Amino acid sequence: MLVQKYKDMLSGKSVIRQLSEFATARGKEIGYENVFDYSLGNPSVPVPQEFTDTMIKMLQERNPMELHGYSPSLGIQSVKEKIAASLEKRFGIPYRAEHIFMASGAAGALAHAFRLVTEPGDEILTFAPFFPEYNPYVNLTGAVLKVVPANTVDFQINFEAFEEMISEKTMAILINTPNNPSGIVYSTETIKRLAQVLKDKSAEYGHDIYLISDEPYREIVFEGVDAPCVSAFYDNTIMCYSFSKSLSLPGERIGYVAINPACKDAADMVQMCGQISRGTGHNCPPSIIQLAVAEVLDKTADLSVYETNMNILYNELTALGFTCVKPGGTFYIFPKALEEDAKVFCEKALKYDLILVPADSFGCPGYFRMAYCIDTEKVERSLVALRKFVKEEYGK
């Protein structure tokens, strides 16, 4: 007999994926260059040449068994050492190899983090707007995800609602900064205030509350934006990182968990991740990719195109009358729809070959997300369709 909970999930497929599939099908009809697909957050810039060169050199010169054999369950030691050294140099936190666990992207890192600190029935709080896949990521562990309503003024944390929702059942807080879908970066003031609440509540409830920081967009921060290192402000922080966006490597599925060395149980937590892997199958990420990223830790893809695209869209959207908080990073922008029902709004946009994602599943009904990780030339061409859509459908 099939497991019913997974069968039930078939009726709730990701709206992002559905729209991406629609865009692909539409592209076959009219040419994909004529479909303005803002659905999927798939990096659009090439990997750094240094990464490609490193891969070629390793394939030519190194032992194939080293490159293609199973990695140790906790990750390759030399890779963990280099990551720890890089984090210490950048953020002044004394990470060591024993604080790093190699994972299959940020999703794999989160899968381990949730299981480290929750039992079935425990609660994890996150803040709207949030990445919709957090629901299955958390709820299928047996823990329960609770969503704090959004602060739509600036998309920083809604502390009033947060302090009403946190309880003795709260074992972890999950944050994502820079944020998908809003593009907002939590400020130093926000992170400091969050850390103080967690310290106070941990003391009140008599148990640690962990801060799980999902950071795949950490390197995509725009000029002049305050982007603090979350782990520097709260001892019990579990950093979950992916190289998918910084190096444009989403298909390689490589990232890591970094346990703050000041965390009370830091000595055990990476070892526990190895045991968690035995039950999830999220173990032994590709050896060759671990070794390659370790050689380019100080490199990124050319991420500047994302800020260029953001400015083009932000200026056009605000000129057309959209309410929109200016992103501080990522490759997403998050305007308010021109009518109450964002699903209807986005359905109307399809007639103009504009693929926009309604934000109901992100915890913010009435908003929509645009993933502008596409060529700047295509962004500029899409403005004609956007203006036509707004004028014909809304008279603006």
CATH homologous superfamily classification of the largest domain: Type I PLP-dependent aspartate aminotransferase-like (Major domain)
**What is the CATH fold-level name of the largest domain?**
Aspartate Aminotransferase, domain 2
* Strand and helix order: HHEHHHEHEHEHEHEEEHHHEHEEEH
- CATH class label of the largest domain: Alpha Beta
Largest β sheet strand count, sense and barrel closure: 7 strands, mixed
Q: Helices and strands: which structural class?
A: alpha/beta
Average pLDDT taken over every residue? 96
Work out the helix count.
Answer: 14
Low-confidence stretches: none
The spatial strand order of the largest sheet comes to: 2-8-7-6-5-3-4
Shape field: globular
Overall number of strands: 12
Helical proportion? 40-55%
Cα-based radius of gyration, to the nearest Å: 21 Å
- Can you tell me the CATH architecture of the largest domain? 3-Layer(aba) Sandwich
Defining key terms:
3-stranded antiparallel β-sheet; 396 residues; 14 helices; 7-stranded mixed β-sheet; 12 strands; globular; 2 domains; single chain; Aspartate Aminotransferase, domain 2
Please, could you describe this protein's structure?
With 396 residues, the chain is of the alpha/beta class. The protein has 2 domains: 138 residues, Aspartate Aminotransferase, domain 1; 245 residues, Aspartate Aminotransferase, domain 2. It has 14 helices and 12 strands. The strands form 3 sheets. The protein has a 7-stranded mixed β-sheet with strand order 2-8-7-6-5-3-4, with helices on both faces. Strands 9-12-11 form a 3-stranded antiparallel β-sheet. It has a two-stranded parallel ribbon with strand order 1-10. β5, α9 and β6 form a beta-alpha-beta unit. α6 crosses α10. It is globular, with a radius of gyration of 21 Å. The chain starts with a helix and ends with a helix.
